[in-house]
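R.M. (postdoc): so does anyone remember the format we settled on? I'll just put the structure tokens first.
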């Protein structure tokens, strides 16, 4: 069996993640980048979240993929290279292998260990597809290796992960995708704004899987920083920001405490919040405008009957 090529982006190898985390924790309004949610355990927890009935994005997007697969295939075209951003367990991309028939699959994710294990299993099922994976922090810079064919590149960015970026950051990422897609395009999933009750159920589920996912970031930070965060001293908190059309995730401090790590310490008071994630919601018109601003001139759009979610192919 051919083992898929694995590489670690040089930016991850040499980036000082400890310093990046310190800047966030020591800020007046503390924050942790959401990419640190996706360590190996966090990646598994997020997969569990996608199985929850309250978490509508995964099933809604999947239903759109299934219902409109022929139209999506016609718009995207077959063959070429499928570049999966934030690939996770690679299952969403796999659902298109038979219809899009890529000759090459490149999976990219921040959690390199989780990604590699997923791709080894996938290669057994599709030995005719050349597979590669890269551990990459594309939230800072997307850099597709020169070894990847430049013709017919289809970037695949499902799950509305674009919502984790501020509008300026999302625009920059989309511009980088456009500049490297050449004669291909972008197949992207986008969450649409909806009523608060649906959003709250999705981001604060009764089983508290999302809470565990959010709290696990503290363990991830401990491993990067050498800090002594204790999960039991925090709780998961969700806010809906209507001004900026987004769901916001925080960790709320339950008691006065001091967290320390080599060379630094940080005092927290009960009720203080550490921001961990934004999840921006779009309208069809606002995402179309964002894609246009990034250089995409043509869009095909598919939505569900409730207009909860949109799948877009942009060129």
């Amino acid at each position: 069996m051919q083992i898929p090529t694995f590489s670690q982006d040089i930016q991850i190898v040499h980036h000082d993640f400890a310093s990046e985390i310190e800047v966030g924790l020591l800020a007046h309004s503390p924050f942790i980048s959401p990419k640190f949610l996706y360590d190996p355990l966090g990646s598994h927890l997020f997969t569990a979240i996608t199985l929850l009935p309250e978490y509508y994005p995964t099933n809604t997007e999947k239903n759109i993929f299934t219902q409109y697969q022929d139209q999506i295939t016609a718009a995207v075209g077959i063959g070429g290279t499928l570049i999966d951003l934030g690939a996770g367990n690679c299952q969403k991309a796999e659902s298109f292998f038979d219809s899009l028939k890529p000759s090459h699959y490149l999976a990219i994710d921040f959690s390199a260990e989780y990604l590699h294990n997923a791709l080894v299993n996938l290669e057994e099922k599709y030995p005719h597809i050349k597979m590669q994976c890269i551990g990459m922090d594309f939230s800072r810079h997307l850099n597709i290796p020169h070894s990847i064919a430049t013709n017919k590149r289809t970037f695949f960015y499902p799950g509305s992960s674009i919502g984790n970026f501020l509008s300026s950051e999302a625009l920059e990422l989309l511009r980088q995708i456009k500049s490297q897609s050449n004669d291909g395009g972008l197949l992207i999933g986008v969450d649409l704004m909806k009523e608060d009750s649906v959003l709250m159920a999705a981001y604060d589920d009764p089983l508290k899987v999302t809470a565990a996912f959010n709290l696990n970031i503290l363990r991830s930070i401990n491993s990067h920083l050498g800090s002594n965060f204790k999960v039991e001293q925090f709780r998961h908190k969700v806010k809906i920001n209507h001004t900026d059309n987004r769901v916001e995730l925080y960790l709320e401090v339950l008691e006065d405490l001091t967290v320390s790590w080599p060379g630094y310490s940080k005092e927290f008071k009960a009720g203080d919040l550490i921001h961990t994630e934004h999840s921006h919601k779009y309208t069809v018109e606002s995402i179309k405008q964002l894609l246009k601003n990034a250089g995409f001139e043509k869009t095909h759009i598919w939505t569900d009957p409730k207009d909860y979610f949109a799948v877009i192919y942009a060129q």
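R.M.: ...and that's the designed sequence above, right after the tokens. Also worth knowing: The CA atoms of residues 168 and 249 lie 20 Å apart. Confidence is low (pLDDT under 50) at residues 9-14.
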